[in-house]
Amino acid sequence: MERSETYHHRRLDCGIEFAAMEMPGRHTAALNNRVAAGMVDESELLLGLGSIVEQTISKGTASKSARDVSDAFDAIGAQSVGGVGRQSTVLRCGCLPDHLDQAIALHAEILRTPSFPQEYFDVAIQLAQQELTAMEDDPQELASRLIARNAYGPLLGRHELGTKETLGRISRDDVVSFWKKNFSAGRMQICVGGPIDVDAVADAIDRHFQGFGDSKPAGIENIPVEFSPGVRHQHKELEQEHILMCWPGVAATDKEHPVERVMLGILSGGMSSRLFTEVREKLGLVYWVGAWNEHPRGAGMMFAGASTTPARCDQTARTLLREIDRLAEDITQEELVRAKIGITAKMQTHGDITRARVGELSSDIYHHGRPRPADERKAEIEAVTIDDVRGYLASHPRDQLCVQTLGPRPLEEFQA
Amino acid sequence: MTQSNGFHEHTLDNGLRIVVEQMPHVQSVAAGFLVRTGARDETPDLAGVSHFVEHMCFKGTNKRGWEQITRDFDDMGSTYNAYTSKERTVYFGWVRIEDLERQVELLADMMQSTMPSEEFDMEKNVILEEIAMSDDSLERKVYDLMHERLYPKHSLSWPVLGTTESITALSRDSLHGYFADRYHPGNMVLIVTGAVEPKTVYDIAQRICGDWKPATPRPDRVAPPKELTGVHKGVVDRFQRQAVGVLFPAPSASHEDRDVGDLVASILGGRNSRFFWNIVQTGIAAHVAAGRLDYCDVGMMLAFGFTEPDKADELLNAMKTQIAVLCEKGVTEDEVQRVRNRVATSLASEGEAPYYRFMQMIQEIDIFGLPRTVEERLAVLEKASPAAVREYLSNWPMSGDGAIISLGPRDWPA
């Protein structure tokens, strides 16, 4: 029982790249506003600036106080949730379909006319400093931050919170400058889905964003990854040792990306996957183990990780690596089919959630520059063969590895 | 079989209840077993056994070894898992409609686990790792500290995972005895949400679970003390933040005042709340909230936050000030309306996905037998008002000292 979904994609007069999905019968509508302004656009001395802009952009407009903005969202039962990525800032919103026009108008208002009150700017800096402290209590997040620098290099490997020093340098003027430089219609993508009238939604967006800065399409340039292999350790008093390892993968647009997804499914797709079976079920070394990939625009990185008590960390790291390397040796047809079903079945089940589908649409517009219908994404997974996986593993050998441990002791016997 | 309030229910002869919610507009289905036993139903020597049983249900049956169980889940592309709480254990899978019967059969087979002894020691290692992981989490540690100190000598005080000592000492025979005692049809509910016909579900359940043998009911629970007082603190040097909480008695999960309690919590410490504007947006703490934590016979209103250790006093005072203002002046109709609007959207969102509906229904099915419909939940909020909040605050006062919880690197309060 497949649903009918109709896709639309065009550049609006105001300059915004617009994509929409008609999803009849849904109970909610979802809206993703993406602005080409991310961590890579920050000055090296002002790391964390993009996040401060995102945190303060809804704290007042030309005609509304910070509380007025929040109350206006609450009046339609909607919420705008933001996040800063490497190369873009995204504001997501879910609402009842009848309120979509108001949600668009509110987003236009906060994006176009933020007043950045000094008092909320000062608090945003204080809260970001506190979040840095909070990260020290979150070993998984801290380990991710540590490995990112070596996985991606100094530009793509930035963390959204910056450092205490760089946060301390940021002024309200820096916030205003960053917004003026990077926030305009020509640098925006808006994706919408739900039981909507697409032309009416496009008209509303055009009306609310007309004249928002430069309407000329800006585009986003891909930035090369600077990968630094090696084994690194940071000491921290913890009950468990956290182990992360990564190696280069392929971009979301690469023709081998579906192959990589299936290969990841075999490695870490469910409880029957290789890592869960070998590291947890057969050896009882861990509670958490997993593998995943990340995609800066135009690049890809593969990750594997686990946490275990210190006495078992060498064996855990060795087993992780053995399983990654064993992929090239003995993948079975049964594993391949299971991994493919794992991906395609979840497309159907999770596809019941409107905001999840709109998130996928937004990702497709960002990476591929066009909507990719569910049938197309499903077909490319179903087409993957064992030879494709073997070919992928042969052409992308795990010959360089970046390893980061965080905990009471470094790895002693590990050789990447 | 009966239909009530949009839900369909049926009980097999052996006592297994089945609750179905039809969601005709979706293309998936969520199914699972609610087992009405959790950490509070354990004895001290078996602390952590409910959670251990949950792990062992994935380890083998008369029909399947652990590898086959996990392969069968993954062959459907199921989104599946299980969890154990203080009062219940839940197993579930979210699959395509055509896989409903396979999913129910697999979950039902796990409910007939053999608790294989050859897997027992290995799984014990996994659980000891889970305990170590939990010990690195300030949030988990303060949750456990709170229960340990507020309900001393009561079974609600024991951590769901057990302790390193209790899990190390646990024997496979004790585990099997607990499992045999609690996993029987009279103590379980099969819940299905999605694009399914109730009759189809009943027929599947009859075929697969109809021969399960009934057994004696779970022992009655003893209610814990309702008073919440005193200062309860712990010091753990390796954390950088201080967790600070103040607690007051609140309606239990079965009490009719619970919805107004949730409304109060939302206005006090939810999104766009008094805590947000007066505590977060003044830079005192990045994370502060209020919520009602409830069990079948007791509840607590918890105001809590995480901040830098030297701001602990400021955070506690700020939370108490906001609570005092709320008690003195009540809430406004605008604040109540904002919560109604938010809930309307979140209920619409919940209604899109069988998995979300499944998760939302569990507690009400456990406590009341049947959940409320979206319309019934909205109707309760429509009736809520500033006057209802005043009445709530008179029934559930938050004006005294309450109980104070503190955990972090600082030995505070002195």
Structure description:
The complex is a heterodimer of chains A (416) and B (414). With 416 residues, chain A is α+β, with helices and mostly antiparallel strands. Chain A folds into two domains: 6-209, Cytochrome Bc1 Complex, Chain A, domain 1 (2-Layer Sandwich), CATH 3.30.830; 230-407, Metalloenzyme, LuxS/M16 peptidase-like (Cytochrome Bc1 Complex, Chain A, domain 1), CATH 3.30.830. Chain A is built from 15 helices and eleven strands. Chain A has helices at residues 49-56, 66-75, 100-112, 118-135, 139-156, 164-169, 172-182, 198-209, 257-268, 274-282, 313-330, 333-350, 354-368, 374-382, 386-395, and strands at residues 6-11, 17-22, 29-35, 79-84, 89-95, 188-194, 230-235, 241-248, 289-294, 301-308, 402-407. In chain A, the strands form two sheets. In chain A, strands 1-2-6-3-5-4 form a six-stranded mixed sheet, sandwiched between helices. Chain A has a five-stranded mixed sheet with strand order 7-11-8-10-9, sandwiched between helices. Chain A is globular. Chain A starts with 5 loop residues before the first strand and ends in a 9-residue tail after the last strand. Chain B has two domains: 2-209, Metalloenzyme, LuxS/M16 peptidase-like (Cytochrome Bc1 Complex, Chain A, domain 1); 230-408, 2-Layer Sandwich (Cytochrome Bc1 Complex, Chain A, domain 1), CATH 3.30.830.10. Chain B has a seven-stranded mixed sheet with strand order 1-2-3-7-4-6-5, with helices on both faces. Chain B has a five-stranded mixed sheet with strand order 8-12-9-11-10, with helices on both faces. In chain B, helix 1 packs across helix 7 (172-182), helix 3 (100-110) packs parallel to helix 8 and helix 12 packs antiparallel against helix 14 (374-383). The relative contact order of chain B is 0.16. The model of chain B has no long low-confidence stretch (mean pLDDT 96). Classes of the chains: A alpha+beta (416), B alpha+beta (414). Chains A and B meet through helix 2, helix 4, helix 10 and helix 12 of A and helix 2, strand 6, helix 4, helix 12 and helix 13 of B.
